[in-house]
Structures are given as C-alpha cells and as structure tokens.
Amino acid sequence: MTTNAGRNRASLARIWLVRIWPLIVLLLLALVLWGDRIALWGDRPEAPVTQVDCATLTSGCSINVNGRQIRFGMSGAPKPLAPFQIWVDAAGVGKAEARFVMEGMDMGFNVYTLRADKQGILRAAVTLPVCVSGRRDWAMILDLDKTRLRVPFVTEL
After folding, report:
1. Phi first, then psi: what are they for 93, rounded to 5°?
2. Is residue 11 within 8 Å of residue 110, measured between CB atoms?
3. How many domains would you assign to the chain?
4. pLDDT at 36
5. Do 93 and 136 lie in a common domain?
6. What is the pLDDT of residue 43?
7. Pair 34, 78 in one domain
8. What is the DSSP string of the chain?
9. In this structure, are strands 49-51 and 147-154 parallel, antiparallel, or unpaired?
10. Same domain, yes or no: 6 and 19
11. Residue 19 and which of 1, 62, 98, 121 are 20 to 30 A apart at CA?
C-alpha cells in the first residue's frame, strides 16, 4: 500500500529530475568540449617551438631539428576559401597535425591531421577562412610528434 507521503516524494523526485537534467547535460557537454583546454585528459607538455622562415612554401622548405630532417610545403598558393594542400616529408613521424593561426586574432578551429600517402609523404587538404579585417598574415603550426614548427606566411588575395 502506497501512502500519500511516498507518492509526494516520488513526484518531487520526478520534478527535480526534470528540472535538473538539462543542467547536467550542459555540464557534461562543457566538460567534453573544454576538457582538453583545461588539461583534464592528461598533461601535454608544450613542445619547444622552432620558428622557420620559408619564403618558398609552394616549392618546399627543409629544416634539421634535433637531428631530424624535415621537408614541408604547400601544393598550390594559399588563398582564403580556396583549398590547397600541405605536405610534410619527415621519416618516423607518428602523429602530424597542422593548425593555422593569426597573431592577436581568433580565426576559429583550423586544425588538420596529416595522413601518409603511398610514398609516405604526410598530406592534408586545407581551406583557410577569410579574415574580416582583411589581414592575410598567417602562421602554420606543424606538430610532428614532439617537434613544433611555426611557419609564418602571407596568403594571396
């Protein structure tokens, strides 16, 4: 036999659950989206950044970092909203990512994973957004295992 007090408690519990579940869902979503930024998924030590000046990105550039020879470049001229390809030739690289940043400007999430082709060259198709202020000065950040390269470049119009 169920008493009125028991029914009232069950009713209050349902009302509480209905009101609180959207908050729980939002908190879980925030944890997933921002967990990496606040280092909840493990401490990732920042790799030292090597600044690379490469005036001929479309022809390719080469650099020796910590005894590792790294060649990289772009196939096609980098233009906003026009796809082009980036490539990296470095022996023994397990994970390769490229992201594109503009100093002092939030340009959104521009991270690309490079995948090896049949010859072992790491490649990714890239499309850059348009900067509403008209700026064209970008930096490509290449993360190759524990090596980080920063390569400034300017897009064509």
Report:
1. -80, 125
2. no
3. 2
4. 60
5. yes
6. 52
7. no
8. ---HHHHHHHHHHHHHHHHHHHHHHHHHHHHHHHTTTTTTT---PPPPEEE---TTTTT-EEEEETTEEEEEEEES--BBTB-EEEEEE-TT---EEEEEEBTTB-----EEE-EE-TTS-EEEEE-BPPPTT---EEEEEEEETTEEEEEEEE---
9. parallel
10. yes
11. 1
First to last CA, the chain: 78
| Identity of residue 93 | V
pTM as predicted:
0.68
Q: Please identify, among 13, 29, 44, the residue that sits at the C-terminal boundary of a domain.
A: 44
Residues 141/148, Cβ–Cβ less than 8 Å: yes
- In one-letter notation, the amino acid at residue 60 is G
- My answer on whether 97 and 59 are in the same domain is yes
Which mean pLDDT values do the consecutive 10-residue runs of the chain (157 residues) have?
A: 66 74 80 67 66 89 90 90 93 90 85 93 92 88 91 88
Give the burial class of 87: count Cβ atoms within 10 A of its Cβ; 0-12 exposed, 13-18 middle, 19 or more buried: middle
Task: Note whether 116 and 103 are within 8 A (CB).
Answer: no
Q: Are 145 and 93 a contacting pair, CB within 8 Å?
A: yes
